[in-house]
Amino acid sequence: MKTTFAFLFFVLLPLTAAGQPSWDDVLAAAKAEGKVVVVGPPTAEMRQRVPATFKARYGITVEYLGGRSSDVAARLRAERNAGIYSVDAVLSGIDSMSSFFYKEKMLDPLRPVLMLPEVIDGSKWKSGRLWFVDPDDKYVLRIANSVSNLFHINTDFVKPDELVSARDLLAPKWKGLIAVEDPMVTGSGSNHAAHLYLQLGPDFIKKFYIDQKPMISRDNRVLTDALLRGTHPIVLGAEDSDVDTMAKEGARVKLLQGFSDLQPPVSSGYGHLGIMHNAPHPNAATVFVNWMASKEGAELYSRARGSASTRNDIDQSFLPPEVIPRDGVKYFDNHDWQYTVTKKEEARQAVWKILADGLRR
Fold this sequence. Notes:
Helices cover 42% and strands 14% of the residues. By secondary structure, it is α/β, with parallel strands linked by helices. It has two domains: 2-145 and 268-323, D-Maltodextrin-Binding Protein, domain 2 (3-Layer(aba) Sandwich); 149-263 and 334-360, Periplasmic binding protein-like II (D-Maltodextrin-Binding Protein, domain 2), CATH 3.40.190.10. The strands form three sheets. Strands 1, 2, 3, 4, 5 and 13 form a six-stranded mixed beta sheet that branches. It is globular.
């Protein structure tokens, strides 16, 4: 009954001349709903800063659900099959957005509920418009676009000039000293593997993931700790923001970019924004997605995640220069929608077969 009442409250709000409820009316209704439930990145800084900042701005509580996308997907699928609608808005990676939230019709159109002038003004965005990535151009908004981390190194053990090309990673001296995010699980680990496969070929995949005997983990904290301690001084999949913090605190760790044989990738991380179908707190959901796409919300995300924003009115001097895409450089977009649902999936399947065959021997 509570969900139904909230929905009717939203529908019966006074409309502006453009046929939409006014921002003030939506905000008042959102405050009456009292909270918004958000799925987002499973990082401590996002868990802490999003609820605190949103509550301070609007007086609305954020129930923040952070976890692995695959785990969240399984939970929401089970809930919705039982007729339960518990989540209002989502910040997620491209794989979950394309293959789960969008494909299973869990999203409502986002474009119609974006209403803050600073959000819908195309001049505030680097592309000159809101960057909707889905085929319908209205469900999934991309709010981040950074040069991806790929590899980090501990410079106490590895010098940058020792790794000029990606194939330098195959040198015998690095055997057993590399740690990677699990390439066998859908997500950033398999995204990295697909990128390497498409640019460097199947032989590289076999030598890197099998012959070099890397430590494989699904936990970014384990990877970051291995990098910091130097037990595995070359890491694929550590969190950019964590490594940046470690570097500022004096740790001899750094992002390694510019391989001569590998086009630099860009990605959005968890920076895809959507609003859920049958949101239990529809007005609070509307306020949240507008705020997240605004200057304040986008900058909070950028700082918390260490990623470059797709807005052009944010001072990004706090970011390492190497994560900000540069004009005139050709990048490999790991989070392009069409690539994600076609070539990347084919590449991942090829990688998985190579690894499965190699591990059986």
